[in-house]
From TrEMBL, chain A:
Belongs to the SIMIBI class G3E GTPase family. HypB/HupM subfamily. This is Hydrogenase nickel incorporation protein HypB. InterPro entries: CobW/HypB/UreG_nucleotide-bd, Hyd_mat_HypB, P-loop_NTPase. GO terms for biological process: protein maturation. Keywords: GTP-binding, Hydrolase, Metal-binding, Nickel, Nucleotide-binding, Zinc. Residues 31-191 form the CobW/HypB/UreG nucleotide-binding domain. GO terms for molecular function: GTP binding; GTPase activity; nickel cation binding; zinc ion binding. The keyword 4Fe-4S does not apply. The keyword Transcription regulation does not apply.
Automatic annotation (TrEMBL), chain B:
This is Hydrogenase maturation factor HypA. Ni(2+) binds at H2. InterPro entries: HypA/HybF (IPR000688). Zn(2+) binds at C76, C79, C92, C95. Involved in the maturation of [NiFe] hydrogenases. Required for nickel insertion into the metal center of the hydrogenase. It comes from Anoxybacillus mongoliensis. GO terms for molecular function: nickel cation binding; zinc ion binding. Keywords: Metal-binding, Nickel, Zinc.
């Protein structure tokens, strides 16, 4: 017996993403999915961000890694709530993994939820988690050819944090070329150079987050 | 990109549907895969072959995978030319700008399955 099914392969993921998105919207939570290669500095940026915003906002973090609680422990050390997802070999987070851990957060008392995806410039870009914003981190030691080489990631992220700019004097990273490459593949996206280590450029990132939180809250007033 | 995980999605979706229709086994699966969908037919075939020899799913060990490849198609938003882009950044061959709107090639769907 032949059965016509006619469904998108990512149907189940997209259904879970819609569920997540509705929860985030109903509770006016700003949710940011952060993606990068391993070692670009996602966790360090989050640590510095939490330190800077801890007095203003209630922040939660979902950490995605193949194994260990190491990243969640780093976040918890700062007093923020962190839930670790271990994918046991899986190369990305999907919306069902996120949905499964959401009950661990108290969304009535949360302003921002960061989702730190598995370090990988390819697969995480293909999965909608229900977030409002996708942010990529690219770091100076990786080289500025990564934007054209991994277009599926940078076509889908609205903001690219260029981390480790304190290393620019020692390496051959061409920031202007990276900006040009990004504007070619995704004209609406923005490259924001910063160093989580020295703090340079972090203010603009924090400003972008504050604006995002304000937009979420405003929606709740207008509703 | 991650065809084992994607094949897991395919098998799961088919099993969900098969359960409702009281279908016990599946011997044929048909997919539509766009050339710019980020899913590679060879890797999908490999993943399918791995799944079908396992006993914890509905696929028979001799199950067949048919992949209908959908060619990429883009239309330039400036000059209106229709062309086959080689990448997701659909550069128009006339305007030489990434102004193409993709109209085909990103599909990744299950078309049908056969079983009993």
């Amino acid at each position: 017996m032949k059965i016509a099914l006619e469904v998108d392969v990512l149907t189940n993921n997209n259904r879970a993403a819609a569920f997540n998105r509705q929860l985030f919207e109903e509770t006016n939570t700003l949710v940011i999915n952060i993606m990068s290669s391993p070692g670009a500095g996602k966790t360090t940026i989050l640590e510095k961000t939490i330190e800077a915003l801890a007095n203003e906002f209630r922040i939660g973090v979902i950490e995605g890694d193949l194994a260990t609680e190491k990243d969640a422990e780093r976040i918890r050390a700062l007093g923020a709530q962190a839930v670790q997802i271990n994918t046991h070999g899986g190369c990305h987070l999907d919306a069902r993994m996120i949905a499964a851990v959401l009950p661990q957060f108290d969304f009535q008392h949360l302003d921002i939820l960061f989702i730190e995806n598995v370090g990988n410039l390819v697969c995480p870009s293909g999965y909608d988690l229900g977030q409002q914003h996708k942010v990529a981190v690219l770091s100076v030691p990786e080289g500025n050819d990564k934007i054209p080489k991994y277009p599926t990631m940078f076509m889908r992220t609205e903001l690219v944090l260029l981390n480790k700019i304190d290393l620019l004097p020692y390496l051959d990273f061409d920031v202007e070329q990276a900006k040009k490459d990004l504007s070619y593949i995704h004209p609406q996206s923005k490259l924001l150079p910063l160093s989580a280590k020295t703090g340079e450029g972090m203010d603009e990132w924090l400003h972008w987050i504050r604006e995002g939180v304000a937009r979420c809250k405003k929606q709740s007033i207008s509703q | 990109m991650h065809e084992m995980a994607l094949m897991g999605e395919i098998v799961q979706l088919i099993e969900q549907d098969a359960r409702m229709k009281n279908i016990k086994y599946v011997k044929k699966v048909e997919l539509v895969v766009g050339t710019l969908s980020n899913a590679l037919p060879d890797a999908l075939q490999f993943a399918f072959d791995v799944y079908k020899i396992q006993e914890d799913n509905c696929l028979t060990t001799d199950a067949e995978l048919i992949i209908h490849v959908e060619k990429a198609k883009a239309i330039c938003t400036i000059c209106g030319q229709q062309y086959e882009p080689v990448a997701k950044i659909a550069q128009c061959p006339t305007c030489l700008l990434p102004t193409g709107r993709m109209v085909a090639g990103e599909t990744f769907r299950i078309l049908a399955y056969e079983g009993g």
